[in-house]
Amino acid sequence: MASPLLFIATVILAAGISTVNACSATEKASLLAFKAALSEPYLGIFKTWSGDNCCLNWYGVSCDATTGRVSDINLRGESEDPIFEKAGRSGYMTGKISPEICKLDHLTTLVVADWKAISGEIPPCITSLSNLRILDLTGNRISGGIPADIGKLQRLTVLNVADNTISGKIPASIVNLESLKHLDLSNNRLTGQLPSDIGKLAMVSRFLLSRNQLTGSIPSSVASMSRLADLDLSGNQLSGSVPSGLGQMPVLSILNLDDNSLSGQIPSSLLSNPGMGILNLSRNGFEGTIPDVFCSKSYFMALDLSYNNLKGRVPASLSSAKYIGHLDLSHNHLCGTIPMGSPFDHLEASSFSNNDCLCGNPLKTC
């Protein structure tokens, strides 16, 4: 027969575990205030937000197993979750993000993404969430600016506010996000220049700022971002020349600078770097000749230099490239014979059209 003392100890221990795993009344109130500021009419995900324990079966809410504090809010409007499959539609939500969310001071993940119609501003108090590692608000109608002191979030690894209507300048403090690995501010209404010391973001691997209204030049400090693999500054109003250091970055493989007002000559390092796989410099004002620096290690899935003011010949060294998937040199002022070789065998006339006097396969015979 079990000891009465052992039985009592077991009951106390079970009660303690139950208490730890249940969210506090304060955090429950914050979540309900967050819910009250939003309207989700089709899927009914907020109908699960009932009962005393917000750590148990509240859709998208997770708690720390040890402390019972709310650690994650993960609400995605594009999901393969059975709720979405049963409804046969993607998510739609209106309203705004309540500042009450900032009272969840153990939050590490805040994802409220792809709901299409959530508006209002990013609550400035979001920068008080010192444990936050992931902030993903992409695919809504959020407006206003990025909080000026965003750099306080020292543990942030992902900042994604793409596909909104966010305006204003990129905060200078953003360079203080020393843990950041993924930055996506694309398809917003950001203006002004890139911070000159943006290269301080030493951990970033993806830096996506396309389709904004950014001006000024590309800071040379970008070249010091040694872990950067994907840089997209396309669809802005950037001017000046491209820093030659971009072609010497150790892991940069995707560089999209198309649809800007960049000028000067194309740095030869961009074309000679064997790690560069996608390079799009189209729809700018680049001048001079195309550097003749390709080699047997050159492997481009896509190389687009169209709609510039390039002159001279198509580089003969292109024929020695290991692979050229998509090549577009159209709408320039190139002249002379198109080189022969395996990289050119599959290309169509559109790759070379609208130049001054190019000839040879796949264009007319010279």
TrEMBL record:
Keywords for the protein's UniProt record, in alphabetical order: Leucine-rich repeat, Membrane, Repeat, Signal, Transmembrane, Transmembrane helix
Regions crossing the membrane: none
Taxonomic superkingdom: Eukaryota
Signal keyword on record: yes
Coiled-coil stretches: none
A Pfam family assignment: LRRNT_2
Domain Leucine-rich repeat-containing N-terminal plant-type intervals: 25-64
InterPro entries: Leu-rich_rpt, Leu-rich_rpt_typical-subtyp, LRR_dom_sf, LRR_N_plant-typ, StomDev_PlantInt_Reg
Residues annotated as signal peptide: 1-22
Protein name: Leucine-rich repeat-containing N-terminal plant-type domain-containing protein
Protein source organism: Stylosanthes scabra
